[in-house]
Amino acid sequence: MSPDDLKHLVRSVPDFPAPGVLFRDITTLIAHGDGLRAAVGHLADRARSRGAESIAGMEARGFIFGAAVAIELGVGFVPVRKPGKLPVATIGIDYDLEYGTDRLEIDPTAIRPGQRIAIVDDLIATGGTALAAAALLRRAGATVADALFVIDLPDLGGAERLRAAGLAVDALMAFPGH
Predict the structure, then answer these.
(1) Largest pairwise CA distance in the chain
(2) Which pTM does this prediction carry?
(3) What is the distance in angstroms between the CA of the first residue and the CA of the last residue of the chain?
(4) Other CB atoms closer than 10 Å to residue 78's CB: what's the count?
(5) Which of the following CATH numbers is that of domain 3-174: 3.40.50.2020, 3.40.50.720, 1.20.1630.10, 2.130.10.10?
(6) CA dist 69 → 8, 42, 43, 73, 77 (Å)
(7) Contact in structure between 72 and 44 (CB atoms under 8 Å)
(8) How far apart (Å, rounded) are the C-alpha atoms in residues 167 and 73?
């Protein structure tokens, strides 16, 4: 299935999570076996072409796509978690949200110095979470140059923010609006 075919598997839900927002719901894509396989395959091809030695994914939907891409490539997966979820000593980063702050944590022993890690997530909106994940992985010693997404919402500017921070950004599909 091509990325255009996959785009038709994404459900649009109006007024979620707030009035005026058109939510792009990937659950219909991940519920479609051929669609999920194709999306993972496209992401894996892109990560492979960039020399990824490991994949990192942010909780929660980044775990779905990131772990699958890592399996497809035969490389490890680094989970980027919400606070307090890892049973070992972690390093973390606080980052700004539209209405507050959040925190991400990783196990730094899961990363070799200089290891080339690609970030994989379901969607890029404002880019805050992906920027924080890249900074955290770099602090742990990784080389992070690539961020791959299923969906880009270009009107929200996240991909441009990542590019300005030195990341190559690629998405399988884009939807206008928010």
Answers:
(1) 45
(2) 0.95
(3) 25
(4) 25
(5) 3.40.50.2020
(6) 21, 9, 7, 6, 9
(7) yes
(8) 21
- Residue 154 is predicted with a pLDDT of 97
Is residue 178 predicted with pLDDT exceeding 80? no
Q: How far apart are CA 123 and CA 151, in angstroms?
A: 5
Nearest-angstrom CA–CA distance, 148 and 44: 9
What sign has the CA pseudo-torsion 177, 121, 127, 105? Answer: positive
Residue 74 CA: distances (Å) to CA of 55, 69, 70: 10, 8, 6
Domains of the chain by residue range:
3-174
What is the pLDDT confidence band of residue 100, given thresholds at 50, 70 and 90? Answer: confident
List the catalytic residues: 61, 98
> How far apart, in whole angstroms, are the C-alpha atoms of residue 98 and residue 168?
24
Q: Is the pLDDT of residue 137 over 90?
A: yes
Helices (H), the chain: 3-7, 27-30, 33-49, 61-73, 128-139, 158-164
